[in-house]
Amino acid sequence: MSVDFPSYRGQMEYRCLGCGRRYPGDSLLYTCPDCGGVFLLQDVRFDSLKEHDGAWWRDLFDKRLMSRTTALRGVFTYYELMAPMLEEEDIVYLGEAHTPVVAASGALQDKVGCAFAFKNDGQNPSASFKDRGMACAFSYLKWLCRTRQWDEILTVCASTGDTSAAAALYAAYVGKPLKSVVLLPHGKVTPQQLAQPLGSGATVLELPGVFDDCMKVVEILAEKYRVALLNSKNSWRILGQESFAYETAQWFGWDVANLCLFVPVGNSGNITAIMSGFLKMKELGIITALPRIFGVQSEHADPVYRYYSAPRDKRVWEPVTVRPSVAQAAMIGNPVSFPRVRELAERFVSEAGERSFQIVQVTEQQIMDAMIQANRHGHIVCTQGGESLAGLLNARALGLIGEGEYAVLDSTAHQIKFSGFQNMYFSNTFPPEYEVTPDMNLANRPELLLPASAREGVSVAEFARKGAQAVVERLNLSSK
């Protein structure tokens, strides 16, 4: 059915989390010109949305799920909560969002000891959650280019893989006046992830070092030149990623009081967006209680965990030097969105108590074991999804999950992007610095049943008989 495009128009402003200054939302800003702080985007007309009660909003968003109006099919199903100054012609939709919530198989739930599900964000167009933010960021760029009449703008991002894939895909779809450049840490991106921006036609530039090094380069470019930075410093991306929270609430009938969400923490943009989304829904009465949020970090890249593991009066923010991690998208030692996390976590705790926001730490071994176990039970979990499952297991062991609570695990990308780590696990070839020793009971490798010479000089029928006999002997099959 066709649904009219919303008539509501908000007024977006950047609010600096450092000094509190505000700037109009119709310009390319990433950090505060006055103090260098990061922004949250806010609709200064948001309170006017309260003229409708929660039931009205729930009904509206439920009706939009049936819409054939292209601009309302993705993250902008929740237009009024996102970037409500865009026109229908500005919105970019590539099939992102509304990814499935898939209950863990019965056997896996029994093994873990509680009920839970994966939200498969790897089923977005570029196979990661980053498409949510890019749909919003590129829609904003289309609006900006149209209203400013710009004839060219360079989009640039630093990436561990998923960001570059999403940015290049959306830039290729929009086309002129946008051009895409991505900066990658040399040798720190899987071949599958590298193939994506190359296939989309982006200019791919590599630098030695890690993600944080590439990010510093991008920050200089964004500060001194007219380029569109597409990392999570970009506040429009954070808005798009809020859709994860809206979809989760909608899937569970807008009742999230007993949910525990496990979210990998890399650059801290995703956990920021998810908390922001739930807080907006609570303020409008769309939900009546907040869920619990568990951020998860590997001990190889855990600055946020270290901050929150300290007593409240002794917390000091300090970046860390990362070590190699299988959760490559989370291998970030100085997440730019941490000030956003700190502010929104305070609001969460103020609203719902200390248990509403926690960070748990996991090992690289636990991440890989969890990913393999999940996929052995019929899921498509990436290493970050394995990190979420490992976080749930550790939270259970620590007694942090109560009876009757249901866990939703963010699997941020598709498993196939990280098949190289699976192969290293199965073949026991992890470099020592990863600190992963495979459980060989979980290993799975192909077996050659016959030598190549078995095919030489024989008919197809004869070879088929030999092949069938080899299968029978290997599987110990019985005749009918």
UniProtKB/TrEMBL annotation:
Q: Which residues carry this modification: N6-(pyridoxal phosphate)lysine?
A: K130
The UniProt entry's GO biological process terms, in alphabetical order, are: isoleucine biosynthetic process; L-serine catabolic process; L-threonine catabolic process; threonine biosynthetic process
Single annotated GO MF? L-serine ammonia-lyase activity
What cofactor does its activity depend on? pyridoxal 5'-phosphate
Keyword Amino-acid biosynthesis in the entry? The reply is: yes
Record flagged with keyword Kinase: no
Xref: SUPFAM superfamilies:
Tryptophan synthase beta subunit-like PLP-dependent enzymes
A Pfam family assignment: PALP
Substrates-to-products reaction catalysed:
O-phospho-L-homoserine + H2O = L-threonine + phosphate
Q: Which UniProt keywords apply?
A: Amino-acid biosynthesis, Lyase, Pyridoxal phosphate, Threonine biosynthesis
| Span of domain Tryptophan synthase beta chain-like PALP | 94-406
Q: Pathway, according to UniProt?
A: Amino-acid biosynthesis; L-threonine biosynthesis; L-threonine from L-aspartate: step 5/5
Q: Which Enzyme Commission number(s) are on file for it?
A: 4.2.3.1
Q: Which interval of the chain is the signal sequence? A: none
Q: Which PANTHER family match?
A: L-THREONINE DEHYDRATASE CATABOLIC TDCB (PTHR48078:SF6), THREONINE DEHYDRATASE, MITOCHONDRIAL-RELATED (PTHR48078)
Q: Which family does it belong to?
A: Belongs to the threonine synthase family.
This chain's protein is named: Threonine synthase
Name of the gene encoding the protein in the UniProt record: thrC
